[in-house]
Design a protein that fits this description.
The structure is a single chain. With 383 residues, the chain is an alpha+beta fold. It has 8 helices and 17 strands. It has 2 domains: 210 residues, no CATH class; 114 residues, no CATH class. It has a 6-stranded antiparallel beta sheet, with helices on one face. Helix 6 packs across helix 8. The longest helix has 19 residues.
Length: 383
Amino acid sequence: MSRFTLLTLCLSLVVGAAACTRAQPPQALVDPTYFATENPKSLRDWGMIQVSGDALVLGQRVTPYDLTTPLFTDYAQKLRTIWMPPGAAADYKADQPDEALAFPVGTVITKTFFYQTGRGGRVLQQADQAVIHDGEGLNLKTVRMVETRLLIHRPEGWAALTYLWNEAQTEAVLHRVGAVIPLKLAREDGKDQAFSYIVPNVTQCSACHATNVATRVIHPIGPKARLLNRDFAYSDGSENQLSRLTKAGYLRGLADPKAAPADVSWTDESASLEARARAYLDVNCGHCHNPKGPADTSGLYLNAATPVSGPSGVCKLPVAAGPGTGNLRFDIVPGDARASILSYRMASTNPAVMMPEIGRSTAHAEGVALVGFWIDSMEGSCR
């Protein structure tokens, strides 16, 4: 074989290989669809979020949102969206600051859990927002998708569905029985932490979203006006989320966001330490620990409406002994986080001790530190 023929053959192989590895063209997008009774096997059938080439994109009129203080879930990032049928809108109710917006039948809310990827298959503790986003969607080359949860407002009430993403990151399928996904977290301190990400089953979804223990009816927790009253970086510019929802026809009853309450962010160092800690506890604990919640028998109320006093844990005795107390006497001991049951349980990863008891396998070091600083700053004693 001549050198010329060999060179031609090599070039042909290179070109052929490149053609084989060329990125697939984006699939045709599916329009958002509300299923009143069906539970499609594929997340794509809903049309709310879907894979198109190397991007996760939002469907028509699907609006992203974020919360001033989000729930901690093993350092996962979250892409949240809202969609409503044409002509439908949520109602703002000023007299119900602790309730989510009154969403109409036909509403579909999604929450996608993902991580920015690092070397060696690790997932990162923090994400670079400029790297992971593709417009209002996600750059799939830089993230590890885990699960997408849906809340669908059907005529008989809200339904919760979970879709699990495949290894190829091309599709998410309906998954009702939960799952355990081993991950390795690259922490900001340079250390690696292996942990198991827990995908909830149907029962566990209702454990959080049924915030009234008497009715056991599930409903959205996060999209309250006071948690939405902040700016969001949309693809066409930054805007207050309540204003954007109103302009989109998705919200009525609120002409000016300044008339609505606005919570502080737990990371806002310009806010008081107490306000930040209370905001964190409200979002992470208050949906259970309130006078009507699943943890009402504990007598420990951590929702925003409960003032700092005995019910919020200060010098409060636990209702039961056991490993959950850590042999400590009071939920909160002013000036001493190390002696406080609240801090002890937040820092634990022991399933028999930790709080919240579901939704995490790791401890949120930054959240534990914030609440600890707040307790340490308190004056008084429990003598």
